[in-house]
Design brief:
This protein is an all-alpha fold. The chain is about 60% helix and about 0% strand. It is built from one helix and no strands.
Amino acid sequence: MTDLTNDPPRPQARFSLDSWAVAIASALVVLIVLGVLPHISW
């Protein structure tokens, strides 16, 4: 319990994972929108 003052060794790893998750989610949304829009009759 003496390591409470020590920060995680790689805080950027979690940030990079979150940014990758956001990028993948946004890419999926774009692909879905591009796939659905052509089928909608305006």
